[in-house]
Amino acid sequence: MTPDPNIIFPVAGCKTVTYVRPTVNNPNIIVGDFTYFSDTDFEKHVLHHYDFNGDRLIIGKFCQIASGVTFIMNGANHQMNSTSTYPFYIMDGWTQTPPAPDDLPMKGDTVIGNDVWIGQNATILPGVNIGDGAIIGLNSVVGHDVEPYTIVAGNPAKPIRKRFDNEMIELLLQLQWWNKDIHEIQRLIPLLTDSNIEYVKKALKKILNEG
After folding, report:
1. Stretch 106-119: mean pLDDT, rounded?
2. S-S: 94 plus which of 30, 88, 99, 161, CB 3.0-4.6 Å?
3. Which pLDDT value is given to residue 211?
4. Cβ within 8 Å of residue 60, ≥6 positions away
5. Catalytic one among 48, 49, 78, 183?
6. How far apart are CA 114 and CA 100, in angstroms?
């Protein structure tokens, strides 16, 4: 049986784990194949995502998103360079001219790399970039970029440690296994799941040299 990124429920008999991409209708939410969410209705967890802002949530392939994870988008931001932060312009009866885009603290797109694990009830703030292979601890509030293969946790989330040494991280970023076809990924699974990192490092060097 070949893995199918277009099904919604990838775990036999389980209706609480979903592949995200086939459930998304918003064109400003872009999700790669095989990224899953340990819940249903992913879009309800993307908050303050208003079309007029044009910001995008971009998530790579093979990410693992636990239940309760929330993505806060730029629409949550209020004007902060004025005396009041109250948004009079969106409330009926008030006559404020909408603030210029430059007066709002817009942070741009939120980008999550590939093979990122986001722990339960974590919150990702607007404009954050999370690198490939990162791990976000449960209940974390991520307001700053996270480097590839880095573990962060806390509120605000801070780096705990790198998952591997710099040489191993560079090999994985060169390999980009998530972009390979399904059959090649199947062949790589024994390496991708091997805890003998020194052995894996040697094997990856050989694969990359032969490629």
Report:
1. 97
2. 88
3. 64
4. 32, 35, 112, 113, 114, 115, 116, 132, 178
5. 78
6. 35
pLDDT single digits (tens) 140-150: 999 999 999 99
State both tokens at 26. 């918003």
Residue ranges, CATH 2.160.10.10, the chain: 18-163
Nearest CA to 50 out of 79, 81, 72 is that of: 72
117 has which bridge partners? 64, 135
Q: What gap in Å lies between CA 11 and CA 152, rounded to an integer? A: 28
What is the per-residue burial (b if ≥16 Cβ within 10 Å, else e) of 148-163?
bbbbbbeeebeeeebb
In angstroms, rounded to a whole number, what is the distance separating the alpha carbons of residues 66 and 17? 9
Is residue 62 a contact partner of residue 84, using CB atoms and an 8 Å limit? Answer: no
CA distances, 170 to each of 96, 141, 167, 205 (Å): 51, 27, 5, 10
- Report helix, strand and coil shares of the chain as percent, to nearest 5: 25, 20, 55
CATH topology of domain 18-163: UDP N-Acetylglucosamine Acyltransferase; domain 1 (2.160.10)
78 is catalytic: yes
DSSP 55: -
Query: Is the entire prediction scored with pTM above 0.85?
Result: yes
Distance CA 23, CA 7 (A): 9
